[in-house]
Structures are given as structure tokens and as C-alpha cells.
Design a protein that fits this description.
elongated, alpha/beta, single chain, Rossmann fold
């Protein structure tokens, strides 16, 4: 039988480098196969967005946003100027005038998008929603139709884009205390929304929502 080993200067035999590499790869593959990935971690789980998740800190979290939005929808629809008007008011709900001034990093659009979608579903025509985020997109399409670049489509041509009656504004703020000796953080989170009359600047509706928590917080919010 042919001997694949090669002699070294001492007269002993050593394995060629290629065979060493193959043997090392085989050993590594066997080790990986015997150990599950992220053996010291937690398996992925699904949870109800309206309920507390498996990771919780002292900041605003998903279930807070869902529950806050649900309460706001009910509050707005109960307001006569918004949900009880004979002529369906036109409203703008986006993050343009909604600011995060809290200690937590959070995208304000997650609040306004959640509210707008749920309010539009629940309003069932009692409120009309105007998209200011789409203004340039709509203006560009209108220009192409009117200059003959495209045909007029199937909708009746409007004289102008919709004007709005009310617009949502608001802010997120927070204050916190840290007990360094115990490693505990206590944070008060406050979210305020206001619906403003776009003719006279009157605040026709306002809502304030509070979340206060304390804990040895090591959760990173992104």
C-alpha cells in the first residue's frame, strides 16, 4: 500500500498540509453539528403586540404604543368636532409636527402611523384623511395629466388638492432618576397629542398618556 506520509529530517513522518487542512475542517464541522446555534441565547418567540413582550425596560415599548393608539382612537371619535360633525372633517396625521424630546431613541412615525391607520378604520367615513407626505407625488402626476404627458386617468379631475381642517401635533418627553448604588433607573414618559384647527390655530382636542416604570434597566432601545 502506498504511504501518503512524507519523512521529515528526523526520519519521522508528517502529514502533508492539504490533509491537515481537510482533517481540521472535518473536526470543526463535527463540533458545529454537535452544538446548537446560539446555545446560550433565547429562541425566537411570537407575542401579542398589545401585551408585554419578553424583553422589557423602563422606556416606551410596542404594547404602550398599541394601547395608546387604541385609547386615542376612542377619544377622538367621541369628540364632536372630529367624530361627530355632520360634514366629515379633513385631518392630517403624520410625524411632521410630532417631536421626540425624551431620553429614549424612538421614531415618532411609529406613533402617528399606528394612530392614522386605526383611526381611519374605526372612523368609517366620519373623518377624511389628507396626505401631506404625498403632496409632491400628487402634484407631479397632476402636472403630467394636464400637460398631456399622460392621459387623464379614470378619476374626475379636481381643481386642486384637498385642503385640511385639522392637523395633529405633539411631543414625547421624559424625566428619570438613577440610583447608582443599586443600579436602578426610574423613568416617567409623557406623550401629548393635540389636534389643531388650521384656520384659527385653536386646539380642538388634546390627549395625554403617561407611562412610569422603574427597574435595573439594561435594555437598549433602537
Amino acid at each position: 500500500m502506498r504511504d501518503f506520509r512524507t519523512p521529515d529530517y528526523t526520519g519521522d513522518y508528517i502529514m502533508p498540509a492539504r490533509l491537515l487542512a481537510v482533517a481540521g475542517l472535518a473536526a470543526l464541522t463535527a463540533a458545529c453539528a454537535s452544538s446548537p446555534p446560539n446555545a446560550g441565547g433565547m429562541r425566537t418567540v411570537e407575542y401579542d403586540p398589545a401585551m408585554v413582550g419578553p424583553v422589557q425596560g423602563v422606556g416606551l415599548e410596542g404594547h404602550d404604543i398599541v394601547n395608546m393608539s387604541d385609547q386615542m382612537v376612542r377619544d377622538m371619535l367621541a369628540n364632536e368636532r372630529i367624530g361627530g360633525n355632520a360634514a366629515s372633517p379633513r385631518v392630517v396625521i403624520d410625524a411632521e409636527y410630532f417631536h421626540n424630546e425624551s431620553a429614549q431613541r424612538i421614531n415618532p412615525s411609529i406613533f402617528t402611523d399606528n394612530l392614522r391607520v386605526n383611526l381611519q378604520r374605526a372612523a368609517n367615513g366620519r373623518i377624511r384623511f389628507v396626505s401631506r407626505e404625498s403632496f409632491d407625488m400628487v402634484a407631479g402626476e397632476r402636472d403630467m395629466k394636464r400637460t398631456g404627458v399622460t392621459d387623464t386617468g379614470t378619476l374626475v379631475a379636481a381643481k386642486a388638492q384637498l385642503g385640511a381642517d385639522y392637523r395633529l401635533r405633539g411631543r414625547i418627553t421624559s424625566t428619570e432618576q438613577i440610583q447608582a448604588s443599586a443600579g436602578v433607573i426610574q423613568r416617567y414618559n409623557q406623550v401629548v397629542f393635540e389636534m389643531v384647527d388650521l384656520e384659527n390655530s385653536e386646539i380642538i382636542w388634546t390627549g395625554m398618556y403617561n407611562v412610569a416604570r422603574a427597574g435595573a434597566d439594561d435594555v437598549i432601545y433602537r
